[in-house]
Amino acid sequence: MTDVFTPLQTERLTLRTMTLDDAEDLAERRSDTTTAQYQAWRAPYPVERARELIAEVTSRPGPMPGHWYQLAVVRKRDGKVLGDVAIHLSNNGKTAEVGFTLHPWARGHHYATEATARMVDYAVFDLNVHRVEAMTHPGNLASVRVLDRIGFQAEGVLREAYWVDDEVMDDAIYGLLAREWRARRDQD
Q: Which CATH number fits domain 8-187: 3.40.50.300, 3.40.630.30, 3.40.30.10, 1.10.3720.10?
């Protein structure tokens, strides 16, 4: 399919549609046990599965209600793929859930904060959503810090609500209303 999604830009990053050329990188990132421990997949993550995911995502021209859309996070200064950021629109398109995954070597530089904040901008200002959500394991403190920096509010924990294969775990819910995000951006 022809790429019709216009890449999103930040000061240091480009968020672009993934291509099949990203499959090995995606499989490597998702195969890292420190990355997979809080996610909906198990390591190792086969490259064939990465290709299937990318093909499924890129079969759509951009974010659509009821589906996830994933973007590669690329560092501008050297073109290196640092990870990915994703958005899922509710069936009515009024709520977006965001997620992010970076290579271990790319963490600690606020790339996840920068990429996710840009995705929130896109959801609020371009897609006109009313609410943005993020969910993470309560023990994933690095992700919790990213969400806190962006302005998400902790809304609760769903106990034993998230399944990965035969293992169940808790799921912490974070929310951000569009009006809160607009007010925050007006202060910047």
A: 3.40.630.30
Q: For residue 54, give the amino acid letter.
A: I
Output the six-digit token pair for 130.
């009313």
DSSP lists the bridge partners of residue 68 as 88
Report the C-alpha gap between 141 and 1 in whole angstroms: 38
Instruction: List, as own/partner pairs, every contact residues 85-89 make where C-beta atoms lie below 8 angstroms and the sequence separation is at least 24, other chains included.
Output: 85/15, 85/112, 85/115, 85/116, 85/118, 85/119, 87/63, 87/119, 87/122, 87/123, 89/63, 89/64, 89/65, 89/127, 89/129
Overall pTM surpassing 0.90 (yes/no): yes
pLDDT digits (tens, 9 = 90+) for 131-152: 999 999 999 999 999 999 999 9
